[in-house]
Amino acid sequence: MRTEQEMFDLVLTVARQDARVRAVYMNGSRANPNAPKDIFQDYDIVYVVTETTSFLRDENWVRVFGELIMMQEPDKNHYGLLPGGSNGAQNQRELDEDYEIEGGVQTHDTVCKRVTSYGYLMLFADGNRIDLHIQTKDAMQAVYLHDKLTVPLLDKDNCLPAIPPATDVDYQVRRPSEAEYLSSCNDFWWCLQNVAKGIWRDELPYAKAMFEKPVRVQLDAMVSWWIGMQHDFNLSAGKMGKYFKKYLPENYWEMYKSSYSSGDYHDFWESIFVTCKLFRTLALEVGRHLSFSYPEADDRNMTAYLRHVRNLPADAEGVY
After folding, report:
1. 205 phi and psi, to 5 degrees?
2. pTM of this prediction?
3. Mind listing the pLDDT tens digit for each residue in 42-59?
4. Which of 142, 194, 217, 240 is the most exposed place for a label (fewest CB within 10 A)?
5. Residue 39 to residue 24: CA distance in whole angstroms
6. Fold of 4-170
C-alpha cells in the first residue's frame, strides 16, 4: 500500500505537470486535525482547472493515479454522459432546459462544455482511495470558503482565497433548540406505530424501512445530542454516528448495538423495546440538561400500544 507521502507526491506531481491544473486543495478527514488516522482514510482532492471538457473527453486520464479496482463517477448520471462519447440523457428535462441542443440532439461535447465540476471516486488495487474532483476557477470561488475543512496544497496562480487553518467546527454536534428536541421525540414515538403495523401485517420490508429510517434518524439525533452535551457541544460524533462507540458508555453502547435486529420478528420486537429504552434514557438526560420537558405521556402511551400490538392475534378483527 502506498504511503500517505507517496500519495500526496503523486497527486501534486500530476498537478504540477498538467498545465490545465492551476491549484489543488484538500477536504475531508485528512484535512481534519481531530480525525483519527487509519488505512481506510480517503484522499479528498480538488483540482482547480482551466476547463473540464478535455478531461471528460478522455475516459482514461485518471489511470495515472494507479491500477483501479473500481471507479464511480456520480456526476455521470446527472449529466447523462456515457462511455465512448455518447449521450444518454436527451429526454432529461434539466438537460433540455440547461444545455444547447445541436440538431435536436444533446451531444457529448455540448454537455461537457457546461460542466464546471466533476468527480471521480477511485479505489485502487493497493487499497488507497482518492475522491478527486475537477473544478473550474468560477466553481471553486463559489464553494471554497464554505467548507472549513479545507487545506490548500498547490496554487500556481495565487487564485485560492486566503483561509484560516482547517477546523471541524461546522461538523460538531449543534445544541438543539427546544422545538428540535420536542420534534425529535414526537417523530420517534409516532413512527413506531408504523413499525408495529408493518410487523403485524407481515410486511417486513416496510417495517424495517420505517424502523431504520425515521425511527433511527431520531435515535441517532438524540445519541448525538447526548454526546454533545457531555462535551459542551464542542466535538463531532462522526458522519453517520461513526464515533458513537467512542463516546457512549459501555452500557449505552451495548443497548445501541441491540437496536439492530435480524429479520426474525421476535428479535425485531426485542430490538424495538431496547431502542425505546435507550431513547427514553438519553432523551430524559438531554432534556434535564437543557431544561426541556420530555413528553412522558407520548412515551407511556406508545409503549403500551406497542406491547398491545405485539400480542395482537394475526386474525384480529380490531386493534382493541
Report:
1. -60, -40
2. 0.85
3. 999 999 999 999 999 898
4. 240
5. 23
6. Beta Polymerase; domain 2 (3.30.460)
